[in-house]
Design goal:
flat
Length: 46
């Protein structure tokens, strides 16, 4: 049996807000993999 994790309502509100923002502006999102590559690259160059 899998344990259920309760997500606080304030956190769900943030997720819902972000999803609404995404639906309104789908072209203004960052690609996760590309962003992670950029962060790693910046860390390596320090």
């Amino acid at each position: 049996m899998e344990d259920e994790i309760e997500i606080p309502s304030w956190q769900m509100d943030i997720v819902i807000e972000r999803m609404e923002d995404y639906k309104k502006n789908p072209d203004q999102v960052l690609d996760f993999d590309q962003t992670m590559d950029e962060i790693k690259s910046e860390m390596d160059s320090e």
